[in-house]
Design the sequence.
């Protein structure tokens, strides 16, 4: 339950629509790296996020009474988006996507095909191939990609329901490094643009939303903060503020001053 | 390879589950194995020899020697 009162709300409804589903929140969260399940859920609730990503991994058969994440995350409260994290080939990513779908919650997938272990940057060739394969199997595919326009256009042509360019490397906290490229993607693509990866703090999220992108996905920014639930509150407001600022239509930048107070009526 | 459990005469064979060898009795189904492992079939997904086993089928699929099974579930991730 969100305890933060906010007057950021815009007058008109401004939902996020992806793949035929509508979300009130433009903030999508990962569920990894929190202290425990309780902290995870507290942060998710504080953030107002409706869609959250989960990973697909082997059950630890040696762990006594390892509780499933689904004991803590109610699929009726959150829309769960399985990812293909840790996959380095098209074949692996497709395999994991199919396993995620078999859980029976949806046919959505956050598609990751990684090309490099140090930077976790995407292998875009394999990503495109996996997108085509999964779209043909009826998946709603949200691919994690880089900020290259050509790759984004190819992903859209391949049937991706959204395109998710990184702001900076996963878990880096470096924030938005190339606003121009993100703007190019937003200007040219028809599908929603969700900036995913690299967000570090609230100003990163706000600045990203001010570019007019449709949503933002983050994980480490909350989980690795000193106080994840407090950061969740901050991110909720940052995303709403950035979106409202974008819709409000910012003033132009000028390289000279224009006074804010009248120049007439001064005393002699 | 079949082995003969001398205690009660149950014939066992070896399969691989989540990367580790495991002995199971002849005639065991996927559902039986999940019961042995105290896993709830609604919270896991089973892949047998690289084929996903639908939930509705786990009681019908009988395990055999050299089968390789993966049992996965959702965990936290970004």
Sequence:
């Amino acid at each position: 339950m969100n305890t933060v009162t906010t007057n950021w709300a815009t007058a008109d409804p401004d939902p996020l629509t992806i793949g035929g589903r509508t979300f009130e929140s433009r903030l999508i969260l990962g569920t990894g790296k929190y202290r425990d399940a309780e902290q995870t859920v507290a942060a998710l609730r504080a953030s107002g996020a409706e869609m959250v990503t989960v990973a697909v991994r082997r059950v630890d058969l040696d762990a006594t009474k390892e509780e499933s994440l689904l004991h803590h995350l109610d699929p009726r409260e959150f829309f769960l988006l399985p990812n293909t994290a840790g996959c380095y080939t098209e074949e692996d990513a497709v395999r994991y996507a199919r396993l995620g779908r078999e859980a029976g919650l949806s046919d959505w997938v956050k598609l990751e095909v990684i090309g490099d272990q140090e930077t976790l940057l995407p292998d875009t060739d394999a990503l495109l191939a996996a997108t085509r394969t999964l779209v043909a199997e009826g998946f709603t595919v949200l691919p994690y990609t880089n900020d290259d326009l050509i790759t984004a256009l190819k992903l859209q042509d391949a049937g991706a329901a959204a395109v998710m360019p990184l702001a900076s490397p996963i878990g880096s906290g470096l924030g938005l490094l190339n606003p121009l490229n993100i703007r190019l993607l937003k200007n040219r693509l028809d599908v929603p643009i969700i900036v995913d990866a690299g967000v570090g703090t609230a100003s990163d999220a706000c600045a990203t939303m001010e570019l007019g992108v449709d949503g933002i996905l983050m994980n480490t920014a909350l989980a690795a903060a000193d106080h994840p639930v407090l950061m969740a509150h901050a991110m909720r407001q940052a995303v709403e503020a950035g979106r409202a600022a974008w819709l409000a239509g910012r003033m132009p930048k000028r390289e000279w001053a224009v006074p804010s107070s009248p120049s007439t009526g001064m005393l002699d | 390879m079949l082995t003969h459990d001398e205690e009660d005469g149950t014939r066992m064979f070896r399969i691989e589950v989540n990367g580790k060898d495991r002995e199971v009795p002849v005639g065991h189904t996927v559902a039986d194995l999940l019961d042995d492992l105290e896993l709830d079939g609604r919270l896991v997904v089973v892949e047998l020899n690289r084929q996903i086993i639908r939930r509705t089928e786990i009681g019908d699929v009988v395990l055999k020697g050299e089968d390789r099974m993966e049992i996965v579930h959702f965990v936290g991730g970004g």
